[in-house]
């Protein structure tokens, strides 16, 4: 879902990325990630999930670095590392 080239230290303690792998900047509609409003815990957030199985991946916030300005805050349990091809 995410490339290590898009990883950055957000200071949050969570693995953070500024872009979904295969996305075109801020548009991740052609990727394996879906966005859904999450208004639980009295806060407005956008949940990110796997488009194929619906698994919760984390949340996306609009306080990330350039070039997208997004911060995908990902649960480490949902990460799987693979060598790039």
Describe the structure.
Helix content is 0%, strand content 31%. By secondary structure, the chain is mostly beta strands. The protein has one domain (4-78): Metal Binding Protein, Guanine Nucleotide Exchange Factor, Chain A (Beta Complex), CATH 2.170.150. The protein has a six-stranded antiparallel beta sheet with strand order 1-2-6-5-4-3, with no helix packed on it. Strand 1 (7-8) and strand 2 form a beta hairpin. The mean pLDDT is 91.
Characterize this entry briefly.
The protein is built from no helices and six strands. It is mostly beta strands. The mean pLDDT is 91.
List the helices and strands and how they pair.
Layout: E1 7-8, E2 16-17, E3 33-38, E4 45-50, E5 56-61, E6 71-74
Antiparallel strand pairs: 1-2, 2-6, 3-4, 4-5, 5-6
Q: What is the fourth-level CATH superfamily?
A: Peptide methionine sulfoxide reductase
Shape: globular
Number of domains: 1
CATH topology: Metal Binding Protein, Guanine Nucleotide Exchange Factor, Chain A
How do the strands line up in the largest sheet? 1-2-6-5-4-3
Low-confidence stretches are none
The overall pLDDT average reads: 91
Report the sheet with the most strands, covering strand number, pairing sense and barrel closure. 6 strands, antiparallel
Strand content: 25-35%
The beta-strand count equals: 6
Distance between the termini: 15 Å
InterPro entries: Met_Sox_Rdtase_MsrB, Met_Sox_Rdtase_MsrB_dom, Mss4-like_sf
Family: Belongs to the MsrB Met sulfoxide reductase family.
Pfam family, one: SelR
GO biological process, one term: response to oxidative stress
């Amino acid at each position: 879902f995410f490339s290590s080239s898009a990883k950055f230290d957000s200071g949050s303690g969570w693995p953070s990325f500024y872009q979904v792998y295969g996305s075109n900047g801020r548009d991740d509609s052609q990727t394996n990630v879906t966005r859904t409003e999450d208004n639980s815990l009295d806060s407005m957030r956008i949940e990110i999930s796997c488009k194929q199985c619906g698994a919760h991946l984390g949340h996306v916030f609009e306080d990330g670095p350039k070039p997208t300005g997004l911060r995908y805050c990902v649960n480490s349990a949902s990460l799987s590392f693979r060598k790039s091809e």
